[in-house]
Amino acid sequence: MGRSGLLAVAASVAALLAPAAAYAAPKVVASKLDRPRGLAIGPNGALYAALVGHGGKPCNDEGCFGASGRIVRVSSKGSLTTIAGGLLSMRGLPDGTFSIGADQLALLPDGRLATAMTAEFQGASPKPPKQVPKSLRGQVGHLLFVSKNGKKTIGPDIAALERRDNPDGSTVVSNPYGVAVLGDTVYVSDSAGNDLLQVSGGQVSLVPTLANVATGDTWPPALSAGPLPAV
């Protein structure tokens, strides 16, 4: 994804699947964002976006690391309010195409936002590379929670399960990406580990592992939670 991104009303996607007359034309509400990824809509209709950012310094052979990632609220007029800044960001080398950081967003019942921080640049190592600023290393591979007043809290280490158990039996690498919430349980898809993880009461456990012997990379990164089916 390029340095600039484009954010549009999520419902506009549905216009591709239905008669044109049934929906209004897509409306751009904000543009020139710093690598936007996940979206979440609050109970009051507020639109939130996770921005991966543009990295920083120093660099290694994979990318350049900094604290330029953030979560913003987007107004109906397109203005941005930073809810939480200082999120780890890696601008991929050489041209920034492969840039990673915080990805999908989900809203918890208590009003907090949840996102997951990548650990893909870490591989099987128990520690992030030395180029990751010390103040940001605690975010790597973890769930991050953001309160209504913007306070960041580091949650459980999602990537630890991949390093410890390597459930799909392939290369040890973790990229927590998709985040969805059902009740008080948070689900996280590890798009590099090829599995779905459940976080409940601070404990991380494996749900399924979907590894493909042919490709080794089959887990869909994004998650979406709907209403529970009637029993």
Give your account of this protein's structure:
The chain is mainly beta and 231 residues long. The chain has one domain (30-209): Neuraminidase (6 Propeller). The chain contains one helix and 14 strands; from the N terminus they run E-E-E-E-E-E-E-E-E-E-H-E-E-E-E. The strands form four sheets. Strands 3-4-5-6 form a four-stranded antiparallel sheet, with no helix packed on it. Strands 7-8-9-10 form a four-stranded antiparallel sheet. Strand 11 (176-182) and strand 12 form a beta hairpin. The longest helix has 7 residues, at 159-165. It is globular, with a radius of gyration of 18 Å. The protein starts with a strand and ends in a 22-residue tail after the last strand.
In percent terms, what proportion of residues is strand? 35-45%
Question: What is the highest CATH level, the class?
Answer: Mainly Beta
Number of strands: 14
The helix tally amounts to: 1
Low-confidence stretches are: 1-17
Topology:
Elements: E1 4-8, E2 28-34, E3 36-41, E4 47-51, E5 63-74, E6 80-92, E7 102-107, E8 113-117, E9 142-146, E10 152-157, H1 159-165, E11 176-182, E12 185-190, E13 195-200, E14 203-209
Antiparallel strand pairs: 1-2, 3-4, 4-5, 5-6, 7-8, 8-9, 9-10, 11-12, 12-13, 13-14
Summarize the model shown.
With 231 residues, this protein is mostly beta strands. It is built from one helix and 14 strands, in the order ββββββββββαββββ. A hairpin with a 5-residue loop joins β9 (142-146) and β10.
Keywords:
4-stranded antiparallel sheet; 3% helix; Neuraminidase; globular; disordered N terminus; mainly beta; 231 residues
